[in-house]
Design a protein that fits this description.
Number of helices: 14
Radius of gyration: 21 Å
Number of domains: 2
Strand order of the largest sheet: 2-8-7-6-5-3-4
Low-confidence stretches: none
Strand content: 5-15%
CATH architecture of the largest domain: 3-Layer(aba) Sandwich
Structural class: alpha/beta
CATH topology of the largest domain: Aspartate Aminotransferase, domain 2
Shape: globular
Bound molecules: pyridoxal-5'-phosphate
Helix content: 40-55%
Length: 387
């Protein structure tokens, strides 16, 4: 069988060998608890602090102490949104009870907004334009003395559209409102400078940047207070639980490599553009996402007359891993909330395909996809027309 073609780096990424090598000693002989005072513990502590500095460097943080380690991107989002909302609520004696977000957020964000609504917060979700972009004017119109926090994602996980976070954070700052951004998809793919962006909090996840699953980090600007989601003295009382030392070490190395290789984004983009041009030759295919303000590694399409889930299965049979974006239920696709918010009609949205390149991608992968996809689309359309 041909080599597996993996074109789903927005879903997860392979762990790089350098990351595995750095982690192994902390799963074997260096098993100490970083909170223990003796040498074995302090060896782990040193490794955690070195990793913290590497994550801080990737994000342009002023100080490594602004990085809090978590178990994943979802936890980072929840810690920022729930922690920030409750803190602002408490400091304002209950006056600030509104959270603003967008209609294209990841489920981690949508979920905690739902929980906050159950607890008495109001949640306002701004819409997006046809390219998936939030209008800062729409956020400005909603901001008031009641706003506790604004959370708008940096880059979308389905279509890759990059939001105007700098403008949004400036609006929040002017009103004394906390700002958070979910940078799980943008970290390591485009440069991030939290100082320039001006956000108070920013979430990342290990497994999207060639570190293992089950580790994440939250940037918390110095002086920003949060009600902790997991209580305990670790992470300076900001996140309880004994640190996942090996995975944190892995995340640090992945961030170090990502920072060093940010310049390679242009290579991904060239590969992505070739892929995109080839795919767009297929009849009845449209591209989704902003034409320019978009992650360099991903491309998103909708095909008329087919089901995205069936396309994923057809390509899997050719050894090619891709995603249809929308959640799959009972073997067929439902229109994603992101495409729906962008105004894509349901019958078009359900025929979606997301292709995302990464560290392991090659030109040969692009060739394989471009050879297999037209065949798969044609076959599925024939089947669809016959039923
Ligand atoms: N936010 C975005 C934009 C994502 O794409 C994801 C994962 O797909 C997450 C948050 C959640 O990250 P994790 O899988 O580490 O919980």
């Amino acid at each position: 069988m041909d080599k597996l073609v993996y074109l789903d780096h927005n879903a997860t990424t392979p762990v790089r060998p350098e990351v595995v090598d750095a982690m192994l000693p902390f799963l074997r002989e260096n098993f100490g608890n970083p909170n223990s005072p003796y040498f074995l513990g302090q060896r782990a502590r040193k490794a955690v602090e070195e990793a913290r500095a590497k994550v801080a460097a990737l994000l342009g943080a002023e100080d490594p102490s602004e990085i809090v380690f978590t178990s994943c991107g979802s936890e980072s989002d929840v810690a920022a949104i729930s922690g920030g909302a409750w803190q602002a609520h408490a400091e304002s004696h209950g006056k600030r009870n509104q959270v603003i977000s967008s209609r294209v957020e990841h489920d981690a964000v949508r979920g905690i907004l739902g929980v906050l609504r159950l607890r008495g917060f109001t949640g306002d979700m701004v819409g997006v334009d046809k390219d998936g972009l939030v209008d800062p004017g729409a956020v400005a119109a909603l901001l008031s003395d009641k706003t506790a926090l604004v959370s708008i994602m940096h880059a979308n996980n389905e279509v890759g559209t990059i939001q105007p976070i700098k403008e949004l954070a400036a609006l929040c700052r002017a009103r004394g409102v906390l700002s958070h951004t979910d940078a799980v998809q943008s970290a390591g793919k485009i440069p991030i400078d939290v100082k320039a962006l001006g956000v108070d909090m920013l979430a990342i996840s290990g497994h999207k940047i060639n570190a293992p699953k089950g580790v994440g980090a939250l940037y918390v600007r110095k002086g920003t207070r949060l009600v902790p989601t997991i209580t305990g003295h670790q992470e300076k009382n900001r996140r309880g639980g004994t640190e996942n030392v090996a995975s944190i070490v892995g995340l640090g190395v992945a961030c170090e490599l990502a920072l060093k290789e940010l310049g390679h984004a242009a290579d991904y983009q060239r590969m992505r553009d070739r892929l995109e041009a080839g795919v767009l030759k297929i009849q009845g295919c449209r591209r989704n996402g902003h034409p320019q303000r978009r992650l360099p590694n991903c491309a998103h399409f909708s095909f008329e007359g087919i089901d995205g889930h069936h396309l994923v299965v057809a390509l899997d049979m050719e050894g090619i891993c891709v995603s249809s974006g929308p959640a799959c239920s009972s073997g067929s696709s439902t229109a994603s909330h992101v495409l729906t918010a962008m105004g894509v009609p349901p019958h078009v949205a359900t025929g979606s395909l997301r292709l995302s390149l990464g560290w392991s991608s090659t030109e040969a992968d692009v060739d394989r996809l471009l050879a297999a996809l037209p065949r798969a689309v044609e076959k599925l359309r024939r089947v669809h027309a016959a039923v």
